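Quick log. Single chain, no ligands specified.
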Amino acid sequence: MATREGNLEAPTRHPLDWKSPDFYNEASLFTELERVFDLCHGCRRCVSLCHSFPTLFDLVDESDTLEVDGVKKEDYWKVVDHCYLCDLCYMTKCPYTPPHEWNIDFPHLMLRAKAVKYKKGDIKTRDKILTSTDAVGSLAGIPVVSGIVNAANKIKPARKILESLLGVHADARVPEYHSNTLRKRLADKVGADGQGEEAGPTNGKVALFATCYGNRNEPVIGEDLVAVFEHNGIPVTMAQKEQCCGMPKLELGDLEAVERAKQANIPLLAKLVDEGWDIVAPVPSCALMFKQELPLMFPDDAEVEKVGQAIFDPFEYLMHRHKAGKLNTDFKNPLGKVAYHAACHQRVQNVGSKTKELLSLLPDTEITAIERCSGHDGTYAVKKEFHEASMKIVRPVVNRVKQSEADHYGSDCPMAGHHIEHGMQDGSATEHPISLLRKAYGI
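-> predicted structure:
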């Protein structure tokens, strides 16, 4: 029987068999890497995405055989290191994802390789620190310390020292830290009760998962989200406690740390779901973690599945309400031209372009949607060895923003938004779409 050229069906995901001994078998891993790399080399549709694919294809093209068998096995790690699990190749480009018989899941193969590296101890101290978001945030968020850290991060000599000691690029933008965290600002929401009005798949009352970034680095996003949701008659509560969703550790390959985060978060979130609350996370990577990655890592855990089914992207949630006639459309302020960057981890949730759809409802507002990866990934863009590549990846996005002559620009991913801002180099500032929506409401 001839092999079918490309998928005619939607891609499906297999559970991640990360507790199997073979998962960490390096010989088995390299066999699969060679198989997949050879198929990617013969296709090359993903060359415009992250830097993994140009790296792979350059290695092949510079080899003696001009094939994957001419690439040194140790150079495979160069391809792995440039993958930041954006998932775009799987969801938007690859014609050979399951159920195709070639069964290519490039991001999860890269994840397996990262897990093998982590298990071997082949990980820099810097990467362990950068992915320990709760620990770093707790220290940097101490009132006096946060001021010192924020000030030092803006001083070139201090950044040069940080680059030499830790490998954080001196020119990369790093997030600010706030001692007055979102959870402090919304303390009255912790354990708050409320009565919701059902509409479509929503219960009309929301538990906000603040996220480590939203809590300590940019709490205004969470404040704006609460203001918008309450303006729409949606009560908001927060869990008694939470910790990082685990996405940074997933991208590091530290899957046991992901499991610990799951054990901390899932029971509390599942209890809220049982009480009738829907869950919303303002950072797409965090929503994706609960929607996709944890259910694939723990396919037999009913609590994980329950939370995954109950978590929403903010604009996905609001558009469900709009479809049922429950969205407040009394917008006071037009926004003019808006350049909206669709974040990778929102796009791969397969919910459609809900942010663009909602912003398009605003009067006298023109939306330019940009569906290109920003190349930030939370940690990739700040690393000394990858910052230059990240700036190359974001350049087409920056060019689109400039060409649109936008009055406002931003991304569902706040880190991507700031990376675009960093590339703009004109003093303009990114604005999160939920903040733009609050501005449109005039609240």
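The chain has a mean pLDDT of 90.
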